[in-house]
């Protein structure tokens, strides 16, 4: 009976370690994206994304109507690369990471600083896929606001 309990515990710990390792791999890609932004490193940014990745932002137009803006990954990376290294600082926390096989979903509240001055806050929602080259970001949608920050 004790050996059956020990085997169950070992299997359980092994599964936990494997899932923790996978979660860390997913978090590493998200962190690498923000490191690339901070360093204004276009190549580092592009390496985080899947070939068909989608980038969207939820916002409001001048009339206050809700809009969803699309941005190409190439344009995003070019924009980031045109800034001085260290001028962009998006500070995130991992609120949720869910993984099922080759799909991961990540929720990260954030505060964004430009040249060390608060700019805005919101939440990023990531969808990642596990490819032959490792985890890649397939989809990001975010919110942006200047108040009611967490």
Structural overview:
Strands 1, 2, 3, 4, 5, 6 and 7 form a seven-stranded mixed sheet that branches. 35% of the residues lie in helices and 43% in strands. It has three helices and seven strands, in the order ααββαβββββ. It is globular. Mean pLDDT is 90; it is low at 6-19. The protein is α+β, with helices and mostly antiparallel strands and 150 residues long. A hairpin with a 2-residue loop joins strand 6 (117-131) and strand 7 (134-143).
Q: Which structural category do the helix and sheet elements fall into?
A: alpha+beta
What is the tally of helical segments? Answer: 3
Computed CA radius of gyration, to the nearest angstrom: 18 Å
| Percent range of helical residues | 25-40%
Largest sheet: 7 strands, mixed
Net shape: globular
Overall pLDDT score: 90
List the secondary-structure elements in sequence, H or E: HHEEHEEEEE
Unreliable segments of 5+ consecutive residues: 6-19
Instruction: Kindly estimate the percentage of residues that lie in beta strands according to DSSP.
Output: 35-45%
Number of beta strands:
7
Please give the alpha-carbon distance between the first and last residues. Answer: 49 Å
